[in-house]
Amino acid sequence: MKLQTLVVSTAVAAALSVTPVFAEKVTGKAVGIVKGVMEVAGISRNQDNKATIDPAFAKTSRPCPPFCIQPTAPFAPAAVETVTELDVIHAARDSAGGDTSVLVVDARTPGWVKKGTIPHAVNVPFTKLNSKALAKDPMAVVEIMTDTFGVKDMDGVLNYDNAKTLYLFCNGSWCGQSPASIRALLTMGYPENKIKYYRGGMNSWKSLGLTTK
Fold first, then answer.
1. φ and ψ at 150, to 5 degrees?
2. 188, 73 in Cβ contact below 8 A?
3. Beta-strand (E) ranges in the chain?
4. Collapsed DSSP state (helix, strand, coil) of residue 197
5. Measured distance between the N- and C-terminal CA atoms of the chain, rounded to whole angstroms
6. Stretch 187-209: mean pLDDT, rounded?
7. How far is CA 94 from CA 59, 105, 171, in A?
8. What are the Cα distances from residue 116, in Å, to 121, 160, 182?
9. How far is Cα of residue 68 from the mean position of the Cα atoms in its chain?
10. Rounded to an integer, what distance in angstroms lies between the CA atom of residue 134 and that of residue 184?
11. Is the peptide bond between 74 and the residue preceding it cis, with omega within 30 degrees of 0?
């Protein structure tokens, strides 16, 4: 198979902080992230044009509850932004590059994370950050906020001035794990503009053939 040289547009390269790359061992036509961009911070797409979605995410009819379709904006009146794969890729790139103001958070339980997660994501299981966890052991939740999310505990008062902008995800639009974590964060006073909801989650990520770790 011949190598295919890909020309990266100036605007896209600047936005994603990438350089032109070569697609090696392409099975069929090259599969980019966006036109002219093949890889960002170790994240790319499966180059096999015959690849299909991971069987773990092929099931269409999960019982509801608990696997009900999540609204696009399930946190009203809080204005939590729902984001796309490109937004998550940008956040992962920035975090990997040393930007301490952003963090991609996998809200799933460890068993799911072992099956693959988004590169550069940090696992904070929803079981440790939801309403039940908050009611049972609020100080443990505060510890997550201060140790992982950049929140400062000022004699019992949480200061969010330097809190990270969090991009939370779970298994997909039928998964309530990251929404549960987001609601707990809002209850604790986490600024809504510093919370992003990747509704598509691993289901959408894998359906696009994006890199997992």
1. 80, 15
2. no
3. 4-5, 22-23, 81-82, 102-106, 122-123, 152-154, 157-159, 165-169, 195-197
4. strand
5. 27
6. 97
7. 33, 14, 23
8. 11, 31, 22
9. 20
10. 7
11. no
Residue appearing with tokens 């946190």: 75
Question: 């890909």: which residue's tokens?
Answer: 6
pTM (two decimals): 0.88
Token couple for 109: 């339980």
Where on the phi/psi map is residue 115: left (φ > 0), alpha (ψ -120 to 50), or beta? Answer: alpha
Query: For the chain, how many residues are written?
Result: 213
Taking alpha carbons only, the member of 17, 43, 26 closest to residue 6 is: 26
**Matching residue, tokens 């959408």:** 204
Determine the Cα–Cα distance for residues 161 and 133; give it in Å rounded to an integer. Answer: 24
Q: 55-207 has which CATH code? A: 3.40.250.10
Q: Considering only 51-55, 159-163, 188-192, which range has the smallest mean pLDDT?
A: 51-55
* Domain layout of the chain by residue ranges: 1-39, 55-207
pLDDT tens-place string over residues 84-105 = 999 999 999 999 999 999 999 9
DSSP label at residue 135 = H
Longest alpha-carbon distance in the chain: 63
Residue 48, helix vs strand vs coil = strand
